[in-house]
From TrEMBL:
<feature type="domain" description="ABM">
    <location>
        <begin position="2"/>
        <end position="94"/>
    </location>
</feature>
<dbReference type="GO" id="GO:0004497">
    <property type="term" value="F:monooxygenase activity"/>
</dbReference>
<dbReference type="InterPro" id="IPR011008">
    <property type="entry name" value="Dimeric_a/b-barrel"/>
</dbReference>
<dbReference type="Pfam" id="PF03992">
    <property type="entry name" value="ABM"/>
</dbReference>
<keyword id="KW-0560">Oxidoreductase</keyword>
<keyword id="KW-0503">Monooxygenase</keyword>
<dbReference type="InterPro" id="IPR007138">
    <property type="entry name" value="ABM_dom"/>
</dbReference>
<protein>
    <submittedName>
        <fullName>Antibiotic biosynthesis monooxygenase</fullName>
    </submittedName>
</protein>
Amino acid sequence: MFGLMVRFTCKDEEAAAGFDALVARTGEQIKAHEPGTLIYTVHRVEGRPLERIFYELYRDEAAFQAHEEQGYVKAFLAERERYLSSTEVDRLDFLSGKGVTV
């Protein structure tokens, strides 16, 4: 398995609303078209209304690469910048846990 944890910080509340709408549209496409994307979740951070955390888990690195090549993902990556003041990405190496099995 291959995973990412991404922390996005939006510019302001208006930007956060626009970002959330973009995320919702993109998430629907991911659900419909990416069987190798096992988990793609988005969270608000309690007490920090401009922050969003994504947790992404892919069957393998090839599934992640397939995700990155989708037109709707490329559109997301291009459009998101207008809403954000910062982005932090951590690549995750799965060790153990309960959840999706492949």
